[in-house]
TrEMBL record, chains A, B:
Positions annotated to bind Mg(2+) 2: 44, 72
Residue sites binding ATP per the record: 118-119, 143, 212
Catalyzed reactions per annotation: thiamine phosphate + ATP = thiamine diphosphate + ADP
Pathway assigned in UniProt: Cofactor biosynthesis; thiamine diphosphate biosynthesis; thiamine diphosphate from thiamine phosphate: step 1/1
Stored SUPFAM superfamilies: PurM C-terminal domain-like, PurM N-terminal domain-like
List of residues binding Mg(2+) 3: 27, 72, 210
Chain positions recorded as Mg(2+) 4 binding sites: 27, 72
Additional note from the record: Reaction mechanism of ThiL seems to utilize a direct, inline transfer of the gamma-phosphate of ATP to TMP rather than a phosphorylated enzyme intermediate.
Gene Ontology BP terms: thiamine biosynthetic process; thiamine diphosphate biosynthetic process
Residue numbers binding substrate: 51, 261, 317
PurM-like C-terminal domain location: 147-303
Identification of the protein by name: Thiamine-monophosphate kinase
Length: 322, 322
């Protein structure tokens, strides 16, 4: 079924780009990376029952399949360009494919991202997207440049991804996008990769990562790669009113620290630049909150409002057990 | 489990390349396409029970996951460079991962291909590989350049892929790689992408495709994209002695025409260049056999030894029904 389904998807998602010499329809795509740019490539897979609940709307799946990958490009400071889609479907269900393609295209279009290749096959529902973007090689945001004294900042708010998933589990995948709960589930269904923030952070952030596994886990990756530690203040976490209203302040804080699926950027920046960076991000409508500091040593510690260290590995923080 | 498994795989498959600025371990890979080269990208997915039989050795799966993708690069005349692997596994089985990685590396190493990214996740056994290669933009082999009068040629021999699969179904996936049957099943387990042939055909072939769906289906893709037809002579098909000895001449011919999984190249070339092309391929140890000719019109016809047109869509040719 490879040809008809990919043709159907490419009909929805067609995006003319001069750097696509040959798109879908040959053995491979033929592409031209612009002079002076490096290529940034990431792949992510989503499997039914593991990364999304059965019954999730196909359009939301198409959006999210691309969003989680674009979030990796954002974390590198890259400008998106091309994607390839490997779609595995139990049956050749045209309505599913059309919905999936429409959701994918709704996110691809504003970023002028072209679908240049793909593969559809029979099997348990899953999809794997490979995205390509560009960045000047000396401006790529990596995980290894955090230095003692840098501020740790996050874009937007954290914890809504985990809160939204908890709502979907409690109220079912059909729950409406209304009110506080609607705000949380919308975040799970259609996460918005922080591509503009990634571009604004080029040459500014010393390290950057997107929050997919949870703030502590992902900041931990920065610390390990940079050979440093970090200290966070729990009461500085940007937690939305909706999240605190549905789950209470304490659970909201746990979700913010250890929940995944937020797709915000966590980055480090010298204190002298922090104010300017906040200003640059504010101009594109993106908030950024300082939540702690890079320190000598290793690992990530979290202080409560009274200055006490939280025991974030205790049984109460069961997200860490995974 | 993403980090530990991908680290484990990258340990097996590490390949130093100056064009990999940043490999596994950040949000995305950072890569440099050489000046004057276009990027060639393909993705292929394999799902247990659909593309391979349950019980297939992990090392054979690792080899094949890469081989089917390199075959797409070969069909474009591209030189392989980088791959990303999305691996979905029911359990975090280290022995499986090590075997898979060893098979992947055994094929990657001689081609100096670097694994630059990946994703491992829980779920039904499946894997999706994205490969990247280079070709000067004006030398890429495409499907759309076949012209009336061109000869149709194939590398190596056809039909062993389908023959080997039939043997695995009959004798079980544990059957030894010995004798005629062994030759056929080895072809299914460890197909050899014709990368050298693809490079030799740059600037020579007018159209090219790899045989994954079956000779007639894949030559049909060339005809559709080029706006031409093709006429083949069944008795000129290169069929191995092993295939004919196990299945008889008639079934061997059917496998050669309509079986998939051969991963040879089918290409078209002006008659004036055919002899020189055969010589170029012979120098790298690759045979190439003229099997027919491009004609005005559409579709692919096949003549038997007596000059009669075969009814290749009749019930006897059940591979076409799929």
């Amino acid at each position: 079924m490879e040809f008809s389904l990919i043709d159907r998807i490419s009909g929805f998602t067609y995006q003319r780009r001069d750097d696509v010499l040959l798109g879908i329809g040959d053995d491979a795509a033929l592409l031209q990376v612009p002079a002076g740019q490096s290529l940034v490539v990431a792949v992510d897979t989503m499997v039914e029952g593991v990364h999304f609940l059965p019954g999730t709307a196909p359009a939301d799946l198409g959006w999210k399949a691309l969003a989680v990958n674009l979030s990796d490009l954002a974390a590198m400071g890259a400008m998106p360009a091309w994607a390839l889609l490997a779609l595995t479907l139990p049956t050749g269900d045209a309505a599913f494919v059309d919905g999936f393609a429409a959701g994918f295209a709704a996110l691809a279009r504003p970023h002028r991202l072209a679908l240049v290749g793909g593969d559809t096959t029979g099997g348990p529902l899953a999809f794997s997207v490979t995205v390509h973007g560009f960045v000047p090689p000396d401006q790529a945001l990596t995980r290894d440049g955090a230095r003692e004294g840098d501020l740790v900042m996050v874009t937007g708010s954290v914890g809504e991804g985990a809160g939204g998933l908890a709502c979907l589990r409690k109220y079912g995948v059909q729950v409406q996008d209304e009110g506080d709960i609607g705000q949380l589930v919308a975040r799970v269904r259609r996460p918005r990769p922080q591509l503009g923030a990634g571009l604004a952070l080029r040459g500014q952030a010393t390290a950057c990562i997107d929050i997919s596994d949870g703030l502590l886990a992902d900041l931990g990756h920065i610390c390990r790669r940079s050979g440093v530690g970090a200290e966070l203040d729990a009461d500085r976490l940007p937690l939305s009113d909706a999240l605190q209203s549905v789950f209470g302040a304490e659970q909201a804080c746990r979700f913010g620290l250890s929940g995944g699926d937020d797709y915000e950027l966590c980055f480090t920046v010298p204190e002298s630049r922090a104010h300017a960076v906040q200003g640059d991000l504010a101009r594109i409508g993106c908030s950024a909150t300082p939540i702690g500091r890079i320190v000598r040593g290793e690992g990530v510690g979290v202080r409560d409002a009274g200055g006490q260290w939280l025991d974030i590995e205790s049984a109460g923080w069961d997200h860490f057990a995974a």
